[in-house]
Amino acid sequence: MIGRDEILALIPHQGAMCLWNEVIAWNADSVRLRTKTHRDPAHPLRSQGRLRAVHLCEYGAQAMAVHGGLLARDSGAAAKPGLLVALRGVELRVARIDDLPGDLECEAQALAQGEGSQQYAFRIFHGGEIIAEGRAAVMFA
């Protein structure tokens, strides 16, 4: 398992903006992560005391960043900085996430990876149930 300190070394998101606590498993095509950050009352994405389900898209995008960081580290390189440019087919099955008692888990699978961009599908689970899924695209700087 890979802990938060290693995740912080892999991605540009630092401090409370790093949303994942641990990598459960990963390979060349996918990553599975777990977190409890959604329950933090000081979560940086909260507004009016709530953390809305739309922020699960950021969790999915950060899962992509973690996977990219792991792949880059394995090849002896640094991950390229990227910009989230598209979300597609996003389905949110809850309205908010700050009131969910258990940990969140995410599966992110690479659909296409190139020199200038990458696309992933992500699914986020709570208590074994999918609460969000979609696809995301990132362009590298």
From TrEMBL:
Keyword line: Transferase
Organism superkingdom: Bacteria
Coiled-coil portions: none
A UniProt-annotated Pfam family: ApeP-like
Record InterPro entries: ApeP-like_dehydratase, HotDog_dom_sf
Gene3D superfamilies: Hotdog Thioesterase (3.10.129.10)
GO molecular function, one term: transferase activity
Protein name: Phosphotransferase
